[in-house]
Specification:
single chain, about 280 residues, alpha/beta, Spore Coat Polysaccharide Biosynthesis Protein SpsA, Chain A, 2 domains, nine-stranded mixed β-sheet, about 40% helix
Length: about 280
């Protein structure tokens, strides 16, 4: 088995078929798909999963007896995985490039010092309409210069070496809102990074969520979490002071100007698609 794909779910079924179908459609077929769910599971979700595990013997399903949370479910999936590589997809995202896995695995096989490879994204709304698209920083040097500012890898886009993640202890379950970001920072102490300059995924962004108070509070909490994370890695990557200043300014913004949803939408898009990204 070459690659194990981890798909954690939390009951919703609205986009699940699209996510699974995009995996099945890959031209690289040496994979297993491990679906892991926290309870409760809706009847509609159960029906979708049952259909696919009966249809394809490479698809497996595990339901946690209790709520483990996102990073714990991913760590469980890594323990179950038989593949040399781990890939990720969320239940509301889509792999839009049928050659995604092949391209990423070929890169890792040919470039032995690398342990993590991602790619670009087409951002879509709840109905699947394209909003915009962007690439992440490409080379290892560019990524390292950028990584303390913000996460340079979309979780649903990545493929990484299982042995490296096992060596460093898997996802950090103490930082559930930024467990992927913290994992990349630890991985970077051992391996090189790369982002393919191809649009590998469709990343679903709800168009009406950012003006809600509860979500703004979540964004503030995630930013505070990120600040604590990058303090641990300030000696491993450059631009720590600029990065932490940026995060404190972001908190101020979220407490004030982010209440205007139109402005927040505009600035979010500019941050993703222009030099504002840094």
């Amino acid at each position: 088995m070459k690659v194990s794909i981890l798909l954690p779910i939390y009951g919703r079924s609205i986009y699940l078929k699209e996510a699974i179908e995009s995996v099945v459609a890959q031209d690289f077929q040496d994979w297993e798909l491990i679906i892991i769910s926290d309870p409760p599971l809706t009847p509609a979700t159960k029906e979708i999963i049952s259909h696919y595990i009966q249809k394809d013997k490479k698809i497996f399903f595990f339901e946690n007896k209790t709520k483990l949370g996102f990073p714990a479910s991913l760590n469980l999936g890594i323990k179950m995985a038989k593949g040399k590589y781990i890939a990720r997809i969320d239940d509301d995202d889509i792999w839009c490039d049928r050659e995604k896995l092949r391209k990423q695995i070929e890169f890792l096989e040919k470039n032995k010092g690398y342990g993590l490879v991602g790619g670009g994204a087409i951002v879509i709304d709840e109905k699947g309409k394209e909003l915009y698209r962007f690439f992440e920083p490409e080379t290892d040097k560019e990524i390292r210069n950028y990584i303390l500012y913000r996460n340079p890898f979309l979780h649903s886009s990545v493929v990484f070496k299982k042995e490296i993640v096992e060596k460093i202890g898997g996802y950090n379950e103490k930082v559930p809102g930024a467990c992927d970001y913290e994992l990349w920072l630890r991985m970077g102490r051992l391996v090189k990074f790369y982002n393919l300059q191809d649009y590998l995924i469709k990343f679903r962004l709800p168009t009406s969520y950012r003006d809600k108070k509860s979500v703004r509070l979540q964004r503030i909490q995630r930013t505070l979490e990120k600040i604590q994370i990058i303090k641990q890695y300030k000696k491993d990557y450059p631009h720590f002071l600029k990065a932490i200043l940026k995060d404190y300014l972001k908190i101020f913004y979220l407490l004030t100007l982010a209440r205007c949803s139109k402005l927040d939408d505009y600035l979010y898009r500019k941050r993703q698609t222009s030099i504002w990204r840094a």
